[in-house]
Amino acid sequence: MSSETLPSIGEMMAASVPMARTLNLEFTETTAERAVVRMPDQPDFHNHVGGPHAGAMFTLAESASGAIVMAAFGDQLGRAVPLAVRAEIGYKKLAMGPVTATAELGRSVAEIVAELDAGERPEFPVNIAITREDGAVTGEMSIVWTLRPNK
């Protein structure tokens, strides 16, 4: 593959994470400051009340967090692997139709890389809001990630 055709982070996520493909996730924005991922309304992934299943919403939010981690720390992959450590999700309102997850880092990239430079294994939160098309927040998730140094 030539440098002119490097895949986007969204394309890399879809290629390397089968669940992202299964749920037809659309990576609409991916920067070190913010990642936005949309899940279309799909009856095959509905719950008993006709909205997206809780597991699908978890995967949507986790995928948005992974996208921002890759955008922020992709240049560190030669020396550390990003891993999710723990997650907490709250379902706030009924989600119907397409839903969007917006992820933001809870600490600065520079601070996290400085810890890695100091030989530490930094942990950092990624906070995600899940919204439906009318803008209502249907869920909130926080995932603590780490950069595990390569041995």
UniProtKB/TrEMBL annotation:
Superkingdom of this protein's organism: Bacteria
UniProt cross-references to SUPFAM superfamilies, sorted A to Z: Thioesterase/thiol ester dehydrase-isomerase
InterPro entries, alphabetized: DUF4442, HotDog_dom_sf
A Pfam family of this chain: DUF4442
Identification of the protein by name: DUF4442 domain-containing protein
